[in-house]
Predict the structure.
Amino acid sequence: MKTILVPGGAGFIGSHTLRTLKASGYNVIALDNLSNGHRDSIENTVELLEGDIRDRNFLNTVFKTHSIDAVIHFAAFIEAGESVKAPLAFYENNVAGSLTLLNAMKDAGVDKIVFSSTAAVYGQPENNQKLLEGAKKHPINPYGDSKWMVECMLRDGAAAYGLKSIALRYFNAAGSAPDGGIGERHDPETHLIPLVLDAAMGVRPSIKIFGNDYDTPDGTCIRDYIHVCDLADAHVRALDHLFALDTGELDTGNSASDTETNTGFYDAFNLGNGKGFSVRQVIDTVKEVTGTDFTVENAPRRAGDPAFLVADATKARNALNWRPQYSDLADMVRHAYAFRRRHSSFKAA
Ligand SMILES: NC(=O)c1ccc[n+]([C@@H]2O[C@H](COP(=O)([O-])OP(=O)(O)OC[C@H]3O[C@@H](n4cnc5c(N)ncnc54)[C@H](O)[C@@H]3O)[C@@H](O)[C@H]2O)c1
């Protein structure tokens, strides 16, 4: 049985991926400093190593004492607005942390990694078209830059050291495990669906729409929401893809390898629903699912918010044979609501 180390496993997407990895027959070890993760998101069948990816001695011990076959790396600071206020903290955690992890992997002879990247590497799309992986990389905040810098390390590590990596560029992760057992708990929460649910549950007094005069059918911004269980499934497929490279089952036509001995691999895939939903549609769906009405306020546009940000995920569909199972917005809202209702910290004061 192959063993996968999962830095950031106590977080939102990481904890769902642990479940899917277990269900797919992998042995999993979570690694997390619990800065933003939750111990109770890790089910008792999974070992949690508490520590930091910036701590090289800790990582050396982890790789020495466990036989790790591959890494799925979620550990990062994620809030783009915060990254503008504290860029160095983001570069330190996201870039230096990933560099320390990659060096520790290299020294331990672990050559496979699936990396959590983001739509933020693209920055502002030039038009209202779905984004393809080849679109220009012009991040507009240190968060997006930090993720693109790690992708550059992966690309260059393929050619130089034979590193095999896949960067998955998620759009907006949403929903939760359908049983409501684990879910989204960011602090502070900045993601739209949980914020609107908070308004529906009376945890916040209202929800603001930032701009209702965009060039979209209802004037509000359109985003691509992808269910967290579909993201988890894509990670396992990406991992299988990397393992298949060893057995020669896959054509590595786009390998970054530049020597005969270093048969590295780096590729990037968008993970999105391919369907955009407007802010107004999200609010209406939350009202419908929860059966609650709440105050909606119109506020001015925010700087840097594009009108339309939607993935073209055809490449992941073709190469990873990935098909989102929960592409309905109402399912994402229903599952997120089930988790928030179960979790006491979201109850109104
Ligand atoms: N949530 C989204 O919509 C979204 C979209 C695109 C990309 N991503 C990326 O996906 C990944 C996971 O996002 P999430 O929403 O689950 O975030 P999250 O904050 O819930 O999870 C991140 C986890 O990493 C841990 N962590 C952070 N720094 C660490 C460090 N130095 N050492 C060890 N652990 C550390 C945190 O404690 C947390 O458990 C992130 O890399 C994020 O950039 C998320």
In short: The mean pLDDT is 93. The pocket of nicotinamide-adenine-dinucleotide is lined by residues 7-8, 10-14, 32-37, 52-54, 74-76, 78, 93, 97, 116, 118, 170, 172-173, 186 (CB under 6 Å).
